[in-house]
Design brief:
Layout lengths: L4 E5 L4 H12 L3 E6 L11 H8 L5 E5 L5 H11 L3 E4 L6 H6 L1 H26 L4 E7 L22 H20 L3 E6 L2 E2 L8 H13 L6 E3 L5 E2 L2 E2 H12 L6 E4 L5 E2 H11 L8 E3 L17 H7 L7 H24 L10
Parallel strand pairs: 1-2, 1-4, 2-3, 4-5, 5-6, 6-11, 7-10, 8-13
Antiparallel strand pairs: 9-12
The structure holds NADP nicotinamide-adenine-dinucleotide phosphate (NAP) and ligand G4F.
The site of ligand G4F has 24 residues, from helix 4 and helix 7.
């Protein structure tokens, strides 16, 4: 019988939760690494917990951290996965300027620790474990070519971009040195209703919906001229899985091949709730970065032809989906406020 056992680091994040949904729906036994936290950090997985009680397949969580190589080896030995998806990272670009050493330790060296643990267990147990690395379009940084494809040279512009470039190359190096089935997905920005609230798209959809319901009056932003190639996270996790189903490991760009400014994202979002964004946006220098990535635009021809992958959700549909979901949250917040409950608001 074919064993399909996946281990996901970063399972509590946006992509980890969509990937867990996808793999469970495909009949995988799914395990996730979760960091110990003083408060719950499994919010994005709650629906799976409820599914489990309704007879769905189980998701098993293991305490661990990519800063701790010993625990990674122990988890891999216990789980004996057939596929590992490395999604764990300090993934916020602005924060990486404030915490460069920590970002390097988790995002760059965390990948090396995981590859070393995989190699040790693979050698000791004779298993073959396929490996996925979450590489990023942020590695292109100050782009030398438009659009960016697999062969475009990297020029990272942030400690995060530099850390991801290390993680990318160490994965390629382990593939070439030790014959690992290790693939890197160079994913362009992807968003969803589960996106962290301090990334720009979610910050905008949260603010517009809260402004609409009278819960907020201003949206403070940084560089609204930056251009990004934004897709839907649910589509992108499918590309991750497809990469590990190929006979040969390889690296792939995953993108929509369309680019939009942050301003356009604001205009569409506010228009959807019947407002004009110019009435509410204030530019705050706090949100500018010491070095910016001005333009990202992918060329995903290789993923489309070799993997048979394509994005299903358009830019407009993505905005609509996020606004709809955040409207519900804003309505709930308003209701709670009416009942005298306080809420902590995030606007970073
Ligand atoms: P995310 O929502 O920020 O999730 C990051 C995950 O990593 C969370 O589960 C987080 O745990 C976990 N994590 C952080 N530090 C860790 C550590 N020391 N040990 C173990 N786990 C740790 O990011 P995402 O948007 O899902 O992205 C997934 C991956 O793809 C990341 O590696 C990101 O850098 C990369 N990527 C993302 C995009 C994008 O546009 N979303 C594009 C390209 C590449 P907590 O929940 O406890 O914080
Ligand atoms: O949403 P962002 O923070 O995403 P960014 O920096 O592109 O990084 C994301 O995508 C990468 C893939 O290229 C991932 F690897 C990474 O993990 C992360 O998921 O910012 C997008 C743009 C930037 O140009 C930023 O300067 O929006 C601009 N921006 C303008 N005002 C802002 C804000 N970004 C944030 N977070 N907050 C603002 O107030």
């Amino acid at each position: 019988m074919v064993r399909n056992i996946a281990l996901i680091t970063g399972v509590t994040g946006q992509d980890g939760s969509y990937l867990a949904d996808l793999l469970l729906s495909k009949g995988y036994e799914v395990h996730g690494v979760v960091r110990r936290s003083s408060s719950f950090n499994t919010r994005r997985l709650e629906h799976l917990y409820h599914d489990r009680h309704a007879g769905g397949r189980p998701l098993t969580l293991h305490y661990g951290d990519v800063a701790d190589g010993n625990c990674l080896a122990r988890i891999i030995r216990e789980v004996r996965p057939t596929e590992i998806y490395n999604l764990a990272a300090q993934s916020h670009v602005r924060v990486s300027f404030d915490q460069p050493t920590y970002t390097a330790d988790v995002t760059a060296l965390g990948t090396l620790r995981l590859l070393e643990a995989l190699r040790d267990v693979q050698d000791a147990c004779g298993d073959t474990i396929r490996f996925y690395q979450a590489s990023s379009s942020e590695m292109y940084g100050k782009v030398v070519e438009i659009p960016q494809k697999e062969t475009t040279p990297f020029h990272p512009r942030s400690p995060y971009g530099v850390a991801k470039t290390y993680a990318h190359w160490i994965t390629v190096n382990y593939r070439e040195s030790y014959g690992l089935h290790a693939s890197c997905g160079i994913l362009f920005n992807h968003e969803s209703p589960r996106r962290g609230e301090t990334f720009v798209t979610r910050k905008i959809t949260r603010a517009a919906t809260r402004i609409k319901l009278g819960l907020q009056d201003t949206l403070f932003l940084g560089n609204i001229d930056a251009k990004r190639d934004w897709g839907f996270a649910g589509d992108y996790v499918e590309a991750m899985w497809l990469m590990l189903q190929q006979e040969e490991p390889d690296d792939y760009v995953v993108s929509t091949d369309e680019t939009h400014t942050v301003r356009e994202f604001c205009e569409k979002t506010f228009a959807q709730v019947g407002l004009d964004c110019d009435d509410f946006i204030k530019i705050d220098p706090r949100y500018f970065r010491p070095a910016e990535v001005d333009l990202l635009l992918g060329d995903s021809t290789k993923a489309r032809t070799k993997l048979g992958w394509k994005p299903r959700v358009s830019f407009n549909q993505l905005v609509e989906m996020m606004v709809e979901s955040d409207l519900v949250l804003a309505e709930q917040e308003k209701l709670l406020r009416g009942e005298g409950h306080a809420m902590v608001l995030v606007n970073d």
